[in-house]
């Protein structure tokens, strides 16, 4: 049976309520924008398949509710994630300050080798800006995480953010693969298997820790 | 002898023949001649003696005669003289007499002429009077004069030439008068055509005033007038609408024609003219009555004015208009009016315009009643218009609802302070006892659309009732109709908008909120009914509840929720990446299954606001989808071979799902209900992994058997795949004995299954 994809990456969007996580996801998955704010309840996901260096990569992107009351539901999804987008709103100082808390959250709940990226959203609202691009960059350097400013409304950098994160995950995965299996050339189906195997240790580990 | 013969001769005067004969024949000739001579001598002697005797006398006589002759001559002269004298005198006399005779004749002639002339004079004066009357257009007296002239005066006067002329003139004059009066009539008709809209307008105004009349307003009016110092009895202008029109030309014409003996012709003519006018009146002047109220007003005014005038003529008598004719005309006209209005109003999409038209028609009807004209198809028209009005309103409110829904966030209303809280509570009847005590921000269970729609429905009812006002309906009937329309609005228009909303993909939570919102709206229907009964002043009817008003919309929303969940399940299952030749199962469920189950339980808990029914339906749909998809995976023809390791892995995943189903993710499920969705898959897996072919083949076809849900075809399909995988893995290895046995058994079972399949097929 022919597989519909070569890789499956699970990504997670986190950040304060109202910073535009859902909008970013909506822009990326449907290439559309909805001005009205409808806060996400619990958790939702979208799937988009992208082409990365000739490989079909399925991105299952989880959109979490930023509101505190859903925190218990959302943290459960950290563990399986291979990449996490930390989103703040450049027009909202508080959301930027909270990025640190979100990073701590990741450290506590996600697997250690998860790829991360910081997004400063709503960069189209220059007049209302409270957080400068430099401060964002500074923070990213501090945590050694990639950073990019985006606008879901103007479709600015959204694609490239997801592609960058996906490419990083893919590179990391291939590096691991080569390390564990230097023989190299494999068919797509085998790679999937490799992928599974690669994920296995973490799963097992988490199981152990749970037990 | 001889003597005798002479005597004889002397004795006889004649017949001397025989005497002569006897002489002649006798002899005595000489004697006789002697005797005769003697006799002659005797006679001579006697004559001489006589002459001697008479001589003297004779001479005397001659002398006398000569004397007479002179006398006669004298006399003659004298007489001639007299005669000349007389002649002289009588000549002049005669001339005089003749003169006299002539004079007398002239005198007689003059008398006769005068007499005749006197007879002619009245004729002439009358004729001149007639002329002047005609000139002064006083046709009726002119006609009377004409009559007199013709029948009294003319026969009296002899057959003069000029009389002939006058009598020849009479028909001409009569025709002229008739023509002139006709012209007058035409002027009149033209005139009333222009005036009748004014008449109609005035009548309508009066009706309006009359309808609006109440004791208080009358008193107020009087007071106002008193204050302004206006005497109450001043009458400016006509009091009655028909007084606007001067009917005298018409009556004159009628009189003229009745004098002319053409009354019936005239009535016919008048009626046919009016009929034609009516036809003109009935065609609206502006072709688009639905554009503005002015057109309708003018139209109704004209029609009304027309018939008010006719009605007035009917009551004024004179037979110009008969009741039958009027009613006949009216019947024809009112149907036409109704159909014209119907056609025009059916195009209107502006409720305000419809209201004003309705008002005009109601006024029209009331005025008709005042004038005793039947209103018949018009109330029907009003009813039809009411339906159309409702349609129009609904159309409008569809727009309003669409706006509300388009701009709605479908999030529960959150209020930060008392003002906002009161704002919501003022617009929507919500029993917020519990909410009252909560600290701010308080959160209503419903979203903004609930109060918004509730307010709009109220607006709709207001607008709707505006139409039924003044129709003379009882409060109860109005309320019932309003309730009906409001329910219709909610159940049709609003639900329609909701259905339209569902056509675009909505987030799950919004769908949930819509379902919740519809429940609150339904709950508020009673308040709407109360509102209606308050407005209409009728009793509150509580029997009719609109329990399932939004059921269709809710079903739609539930279906959407189910579809959404199924879609999510599909998305998860699309992530499936089974290695169908797996040697050893990993010992734990596949990650897409665990992700999916945790996602589902998360979603299901967040659906807690939903009615139980909807949640159950959602979870059923999701579970069924999972079971179907997993089962399809196993039987997918694209998967040619399945190792028992892979089968174990799938079994493990199915067990996860079964656990999820067994622990009742939502309340209200029957025990084990969700597991039933997995039953067929479970039996198939159990059969294959348990290698329980003997009991399967034993029970096959029996109801309620352990594997009753597994068809021989499915069993065979899966078995083939297993066989393929085993053959592949053991191509090069030598089979152990028990493996050989197993292979043999497998082939036998396969054969039997094929047989069963064939049996079923045949």
TrEMBL record, chain A:
Keywords annotated in UniProt: GTP-binding, Lipoprotein, Membrane, Nucleotide-binding, Prenylation
Record GO terms (molecular function): GTP binding; GTPase activity
GO cellular component: cytoplasm; endomembrane system
CDD domains membership: Rab8_Rab10_Rab13_like
Gene3D superfamilies the record matches: P-loop containing nucleotide triphosphate hydrolases
One Pfam entry name: Ras
Bias type Polar residues, positions: 200-211
Primary site of residence: membrane
InterPro entries given in the database record: P-loop_NTPase, Small_GTP-bd, Small_GTPase, Small_GTPase_Rab
Topology relative to the membrane: Lipid-anchor
Cellular compartments annotated: Endomembrane system
Residue segments, region Disordered: 174-211
Record NCBIfam families: small_GTP (TIGR00231)
Family membership noted in the UniProt record: Belongs to the small GTPase superfamily. Rab family.
Protein name, UniProt field: Ras-related protein Rab-8A
From TrEMBL, chain B:
Top-level taxon in the UniProt lineage: Eukaryota
A cellular component term, taken from the record's GO annotations: membrane
Residue span, Exocyst complex component EXOC6/Sec15 N-terminal domain: 35-203
Residue stretches making up the Exocyst complex subunit EXOC6/Sec15 C-terminal domain: 378-721
Any Pfam family hit: EXOC6_Sec15_N
One GO term (biological process): vesicle tethering involved in exocytosis
This protein's UniProt keywords: Coiled coil, Exocytosis, Transport
Purpose: Component of the exocyst complex involved in the docking of exocytic vesicles with fusion sites on the plasma membrane.
Family: Belongs to the SEC15 family.
Protein name in the entry: Exocyst complex component
